[in-house]
Amino acid sequence: MTFYISANCKLKFTIVDGGVERRCLAVPYELKFTETQTEENHRPIREEIKEDEWLMPRVPGFWLWIRDVHEVFFLGNEPTKLKHIPQKVLDATADFLSAECAAALRDWLDKNMGVADDIKDAITKTALLGRLKDVTPFCDLKPKEREDTLTRTCRIITSKGIRERIKYELKGGDAVFIKEGASSSGS
Q1: Are strands 155-159 and 162-168 parallel, antiparallel or unpaired?
Q2: Which of 25, 83, 91, 183 has its CB 3.0 to 4.6 Å from that of 114, i.e. a possible disulfide?
Q3: Which residues share a beta bridge with 150?
Q4: How many Å apart are CA 30 and CA 25, to the nearest integer?
Q5: Is 162:40 a contact under the CB 8 Å cutoff?
Q6: Cβ partners under 8 Å of residue 121, min gap 6
Q7: What is the pTM (predicted TM-score) of this model?
Q8: What DSSP character marks residue 50?
Q9: What span, in angstroms and rounded, lies between the C-alpha atoms of 146 and 138?
Q10: Average pLDDT value over all residues in the chain
Q11: How far, in Å, CA of 31 to CA of 46, rounded?
């Protein structure tokens, strides 16, 4: 069974797996309804919209409008499969997923990685992805989703003759090259 959730606030997930990543769309809604309009994105609150006598006669038309919007923008009966996804929505979705899934990866990295002496000692992207495939919750992600989560959370650095080493803001500090093994420094 698949559930779809629509909300007017950012949701908080305990784990973001491939299913959440495939189905999630974050739509930035920049308009704000306020008593006084002090900014360009502010709109006046219309109290009459909250009244049943104003709203009820409009409900059938609203459902027809929703149906028409659905047919224009969505593929089939899938409420998260858009025919065209605007760049603004793609960016907002990537930011949301990055924050959600990256939090679990940051926690894991902070507990299991230490500071490398230099780039040559740093863990490689391939080695870290190999390690993550056996770690819950990352083992539930497809390889591409695991790699995307890593690249959203860490910087992948290639230097002369040294390929794809991981640089990360360990324990919220400055970005450093990391290696396997918990760090005793910076704790």
Answers
A1: antiparallel
A2: 183
A3: none
A4: 16
A5: no
A6: 177, 179
A7: 0.52
A8: G
A9: 6
A10: 79
A11: 14
